[in-house]
Write a structure and sequence with these properties.
Radius of gyration: 17 Å
CATH class: Alpha Beta
Number of domains: 1
Largest sheet: 8 strands, parallel
Strand order of the largest sheet: 7-6-5-4-3-2-1-8
Number of helices: 9
CATH topology: TIM Barrel
Structural class: alpha/beta
CATH architecture: Alpha-Beta Barrel
Helix content: 25-40%
Length: 241
């Protein structure tokens, strides 16, 4: 990938995010970008980080390990704390992989069951850390999507209180694939409304502030509906192999 092409892509995405924020009366600083590097090479992931994409997203430890070790492992990251990569685990997390992921990935975007909460809490306790987590919600109801149904989140919130090393910070969802971005709007709006309802009911303490929603094909609509984190792969870092 040519450096100028990569830079231009980053600038174009940033301009589109800024425009979506302006349309919806939001501040650009309220929207964070996760560069999803799961489909690109080690070299591209390194270049993405070098060009200022601080937040990197992967969905399988087997695929992420080499990139994590090259960018963040063994003191290889920037000495400037502001330049260090922040890793987001955005895929379905198997409990037997928790020991590999927790402590390396700052954020977990796919908390969707108590067995996973137990495993994360146990590992976090061993490392003496707290793990910010997004609860994955299957807003669309598609069988192919991971996540819990919206009506189950309140009870899940109650059960999570017994795991002090988990820090629920928001909700995550994936919209059904559609060539028309506007089709995703009801899904994103429903996730925002669910977060607001949960906060009104004081289901979480502290309240949830974050919404992880929106990908390459629909991120502008997600931002208009309140996304605070967008997960961008192809449109931002490309796709290889």
């Amino acid at each position: 990938m040519e450096l100028t092409t990569f830079k231009d892509r980053i600038q174009e995405v940033d301009s589109r995010i800024a425009a979506a924020c302006e349309r919806s009366g939001r501040s650009r600083e309220d929207v964070n970008v996760i560069a999803v590097t799961k489909y690109v090479s080690l070299e591209t992931a390194i270049e993405a980080h070098r060009l200022g994409l601080q937040h990197l997203g992967e969905n399988r430890w087997q695929d992420a390990q080499q990139k994590w070790e090259a960018i963040s492992g063994s003191g290889n990251d920037s000495e400037d704390a502001e330049g260090q990569a922040v890793w987001h685990f955005i895929g379905s997390l198997q409990t037997n992989k928790v020991k590999d992921v927790i402590g390396k990935f700052t954020y977990i975007h796919s908390l969707d069951r108590i067995s996973l909460a137990q495993a994360i809490d146990k590992r976090a306790s061993q490392l003496a850390i707290k793990v910010p987590c997004f609860i994955q919600v299957n807003i669309s109801g598609e069988d192919s999507k991971h996540g819990m149904p919206p009506e189950a989140v309140t009870q899940f919130a109650e059960e999570l209180r017994q795991y002090p090393n988990l820090l629920p910070i928001g909700l995550m969802t994936m919209a059904p694939y559609d060539s028309e971005p506007e089709a995703a709007r009801p899904v994103f709006r429903a996730l925002r409304e669910l977060r607001d309802q949960l906060n009104l009911a004081k289901a979480f303490d502290p309240p949830l502030t974050e919404l992880s929603m929106g990908m390459s094909g629909d991120f502008e609509v997600a931002i208009e509906e309140g996304a605070t984190w967008v997960r961008l792969g192809t449109i931002l870092v490309g796709k290889e192999g």
